[in-house]
Amino acid sequence: MNNKKKLLLSVAILITGLLLSCNSGSDKKQDEHQHAKQEQEIYTCPMHPEIIRDKPGKCPICGMTLVKKGGTESNISDVGIDFLLKPTNEYVLTFVPVTRLQRSEEEIEVEAIGRIAYDTRQIGTISARITGRIEKLYVRYRYQKVSKGQKIMEIYSPEILTAQQNLLFLLKNDDGNIQFINAAKEKLLLLGMSEEQMNEVIRTKKTSFTITIYSRYSGHIHEAGSANGSMQQKTGGMRDISLITEELSVKEGMYVQKGQTILSVYNPERAWAILNFYADKQSLIREGSPVRVAPETAPGKDFRATINFIEPFYRKESKTVTARVYFDNSKLKIPIGSQVRAAIFGNSREANWLPTQAVVSLGLEKVVFVKHDIGYKANKVTTGIVYKNKTQILEGLSPQDSVAANAQFLMDSESFIKVKN
Question: Please, what is the end-to-end C-alpha distance for the chain in angstroms?
Fold first, then answer.
């Protein structure tokens, strides 16, 4: 009986030990499974391994999508040694996000900067029709405002005096010779005398020693010949606008020659907006393209117009194309010389686009990185315009190709990329 009890006790102890051992193994396996699960839920950045997160997201440094820690090893565990030994200038292993060609129609808007200038088509010149001496000058300084019909100067000329005497002699001694009298009157008018002055001479029977020169234009006085007594006509452009109070080179007592340009009058109510834009945008802009111009001195006075002329050359020391916009400045009153910003609206363009960051420039060539298996391979492409961080792709890609969204992360320098033609 005692032996039977001892046997039962031994069996009970053995069963208890087995149960405890099983429970302990189960707990251990559960802890290991939980630990492995926690390890799998750790996310890091492929480019910045010091970034550790417990959930998916973006890298705060480079913006790349975080990947599970340890996931990289499992993805390439079955890659052969021949694959891994490919040259680094032809094939790159990475997990940069991908993108594809997006076909869309873009409303092209080209930014331009420029300035306001006088419309040179509206320049008026005041010239001497006779040789003589300036007796009286009614304008005193550059950029002085004048109006149409305003007195500019009075000139004494022996030629105009002789022509008056001839007319008075005919009227007194041969008043029936209408043909000669009309010819004498015509000569006075051609020499610059106004009909009012001529009628006054006829009425008073007295010659006038001077002839009055009137402005036929409204605007600002800008040029007055050279500063010396010869008064040679200047062939240059406008003077510096800051020299508003500079005195005229024309002075009382100076002599002028027949046909000489004495003064030029610029009309500030007719102006140009001269806009400059980069040459790569020239294909988008043509005469007639709508444009919105905003002066920096008065942003609230922006106006709409169209491109009237595109200059067929590059200005000196400039790499931009220049376009002109003619507009009426009589109401806007924008100061000449003001800086302006403009938006030129080109034609809508439907094309294949990639993010500009996905395209790498190698100077004369452009490349993208096309995804192959778990890596990327450099691929040459032909690009068009660049607009709003989008680059037009003309050749080299199909809509099915996946390319690296940010190609800059796949290279240390531009020199390492090798493209096969």
Answer: 97
